[in-house]
């Protein structure tokens, strides 16, 4: 009988084949070939099935252990490299001395920003003083006391003789906080807890409704005659609009996607609505439009010299063209959106024989959702928004907020609702509310996706969130009288006022910031006011779990998601206050910065694209465009990440509160404050949006990434051909 270890030396296979790829700076498992049946056969062994099973199990165990060892090594090296990179990044941020106040955009009012930051600094210095007080009292044994009703039994281990100044101050501070500070603080905490539970209940109900929809397999289905009409060649007239402004990184992707839509060219018109004030960007977009027009696309270019009303003004100007009256529907796409070729065929049929349907909205998907931690966390939020909020509201009440893009409107619904108005920075939500008040119904298609791009830097995401949370408050002020006097049911009025505006747009950022960033750290220094552990830990964890459900691959990021959402409550609360009280530049529109990410399909089509049409009739030479690109790259290299002062101040406030919680032996509160403080610290140092360059991206020349000019795309053909072919 051969020794059991002979199969190592005698078989055709020399161990389990493993393919490992190193992605600098981390090791990661890319592919592991599973053992074949031959690997499990014991060479030169008897036909005893038990012996074969023992050999098979031994080799299978070896393979599994090898797999786990590689995974563990990859995890450890990844963590080590991440921690090692934090130190140099921290030093770079501090050395640059660039804060959010230097050359800051006016999207945030200066008075509000400075006043808000001053209040946080006041809390910070006060907490530092109280922390010193409490630590001294702890080591002297003065921290023990019992409060019963209105009577305070203050226990001091030293006799009540002659007290020094510190003893006098601390004893009077205890009496003041018990009698004057703790009651209103506890009242405010109780109010926020009620709001928190109300909003959590609303989210739980939405999730249960979504589960019911999925269980019943409910989804909008167009009528058979509508689909048959398209098959028989009956295509309605469709207008496609692409509003853009100085977005040279993404304009080619969107224009190409619109020109490839499967719709008769005589029945579709593509409007490229350019608000760019950069002459080079204008010429590049004109050149792209001219190229597709030469290829037979029915496309026009429109440019406004004066950018009144921002996106709303741009769309309003486009709808005023005389030829619009010949069209029945209008599809709107932002400059970074790339719909599939059958987008119109999957959305337009829902309008036929449904004369009360005014909007068909598709969901978004993201080409860069795994680019860095910031994009992963955004993907969680938006997946919940589309999968749960939009889908449930669309199925149950036929109303939801228009997302501003990837949607098709019936032009008659736009006209009946008053058209595009320039009164807020959320013109999409504005037109949706007015259309709902006119009785129009909305349909949300969860199975129709449109690719787009997420902000990859914290600065861009912060500006976007400021607009998204300031605009609804502006709109609420303007629409409230119209909602009250509208001829709709009481339930629809309640849904608009309480659920749509107050609970989800005002109460959510209010209690998130007040409860977890102000009240919780204050209760550490004023222990007479308490927050239960279930408010601090269990309910937020449950809500985060529900939020991650629509994106199951994001479960490893559930804790960072919870901490980041509380961190973003600072920006959202500030924006909500600015919009509600119309402070400063709350009405200014800031275009979200794009990086021009492409899907693999785009890259392959780029390689296959014929370059002979490029630069025909361009007013700029190739050398001039390349010189402009090089100048842009020099500017980008000089850009530094900023330090965000409000977030840093709150980070130190929470970390000091966590230190104070140690004196009270409050375990859950300590861990929450500690990790929340670290989250604020990372965001304040702008480490949340650090770019992670992949090896496949590094294979391309640096000049090919994030730029949208024709010369850049031609260079990409030369530098990325091998990547696309693989």
Automatic annotation (TrEMBL):
Q: Which InterPro entries match?
A: Glyco_trans_2-like, Nucleotide-diphossugar_trans
Carries keyword Transmembrane helix?
A: yes
Domain Glycosyltransferase 2-like stretches = 329-524
Domain of life the protein comes from: Eukaryota
Keyword annotations for this protein, in alphabetical order, are: Cell wall biogenesis/degradation, Glycosyltransferase, Golgi apparatus, Membrane, Transferase, Transmembrane, Transmembrane helix
The cross-references to SUPFAM superfamilies, in alphabetical order and at most eight, read:
Nucleotide-diphospho-sugar transferases (SSF53448)
Q: Where in the cell is it found?
A: Golgi apparatus membrane
Report how it sits in the membrane. Answer: Multi-pass membrane protein
- Protein name per the record: Glycosyltransferase 2-like domain-containing protein
The root-end lineage is: Eukaryota, Viridiplantae, Streptophyta, Embryophyta, Tracheophyta
